[in-house]
Automatic annotation (TrEMBL):
Residues where [2Fe-2S] cluster binds: 213, 218, 221, 233
Keyword Iron-sulfur carried by entry: yes
UniProt organism field: Clostridium gasigenes
GO biological process, one term: 'de novo' UMP biosynthetic process
General function of this protein: Responsible for channeling the electrons from the oxidation of dihydroorotate from the FMN redox center in the PyrD type B subunit to the ultimate electron acceptor NAD(+).
HAMAP family: DHODB_Fe_S_bind
SUPFAM superfamilies: Ferredoxin reductase-like, C-terminal NADP-linked domain, Riboflavin synthase domain-like
Pfam families registered for this protein in UniProt: DHODB_Fe-S_bind (PF10418), NAD_binding_1 (PF00175)
Subunit text: Heterotetramer of 2 PyrK and 2 PyrD type B subunits.
One Gene Ontology term of the molecular function aspect: oxidoreductase activity
Pathway as given in its UniProt record: Pyrimidine metabolism; UMP biosynthesis via de novo pathway; orotate from (S)-dihydroorotate (NAD(+) route): step 1/1
Protein name: Dihydroorotate dehydrogenase B (NAD(+)), electron transfer subunit
Family to which this protein belongs: Belongs to the PyrK family.
Keyword hit for Chaperone: no
Length: 246
């Protein structure tokens, strides 16, 4: 079992209703799409897996939604506090292969890893086509930051408050891309995978599951694939979308 490291909190700020941006000290090298396990010292609650949103030289940024007792504890952190981390964990997105024209498709808090992913893709090829498709219930966040690295950004909200009223999959023209990289609610990723299969477009999905350890020991985070159950933390979280059985 890996040991937790103490990380100093630099910023913990609510950026949208119930959505917090947490910045901590961290010098590790990461891959876009990886995650960390976060735990507050002394807490009786299980650690939480949180995707890497952005990596600085000596900092790492996470976005998290306050949805339960654990994340409510995180919301109380202030500058100078410490939080325990294990990471980076998981495989991340493989951007070393030739992805061609890329669409980043995300929903809700699944938008978080798309910032570092868009940045890394743009660093790799300054002239490649990279578009963002992001869906939210009502309020949007992180779109302005991601826009810096993509050609176009398409936004939908369930309420119609921003962009298209409806689902982000309504906007997606998969046939215009060679590869789609996806993260968000499972029902959305299932729909994206179905669209991509129909259009014969490569798709990778980042699965989000409850985890207890993050290192493959507890088997809490299994997901179904064509080869049986796989551990989201150790074998993923990024899988070929055609390989996962939603």
């Amino acid at each position: 079992m890996m040991n937790y490291n103490k990380a100093r909190v630099i910023l913990n700020q609510e950026i949208s209703d119930g959505i917090f941006k947490l910045v901590v000290e961290d010098k590790n090298e990461i891959k876009a799409g990886q995650f960390y396990m976060l735990k507050i010292n002394g807490s009786t609650l299980l650690p939480r897996p949180i995707s890497i949103c952005e990596k600085g030289i000596e900092t790492i940024t996470f976005l998290y939604a306050v949805v339960g007792n654990g994340t409510r504890e995180y919301a109380k952190l202030v500058e100078g506090d410490y939080i325990n981390l294990i990471g980076p964990l998981g495989n991340g997105f493989n951007i070393e292969e030739d992805l061609g024209k890329v669409a980043l498709v995300c929903g809700g808090i699944g938008t978080a890893p798309m910032l570092e992913l868009a940045k890394k893709l743009r660093e790799k090829d300054k002239n490649s086509k990279i578009d963002l498709y992001a869906g939210f219930r009502d309020n949007i966040y992180l779109i302005d930051e991601i826009k810096e690295y993509v050609n176009k950004a398409y936004v939908s909200t369930n309420t119609g408050k921003h962009g298209h009223k409806g689902f982000v999959t309504d906007l997606l023209k998969a046939e215009e891309y060679d590869t789609i990289l996806c993260c968000g609610p499972e029902v959305m990723m299932k729909k994206v995978a179905e669209i991509c299969k129909e259009k014969n477009v490569k798709v990778y999905v980042s699965m989000e599951k409850h985890m207890a350890c993050g290192v493959g020991a507890c088997l809490v985070c299994t997901c179904k694939t064509k080869d049986g159950n796989k551990r989201t933390c150790k074998d993923g979280p990024v899988f070929d979308g055609d390989y996962v059985e939603f």
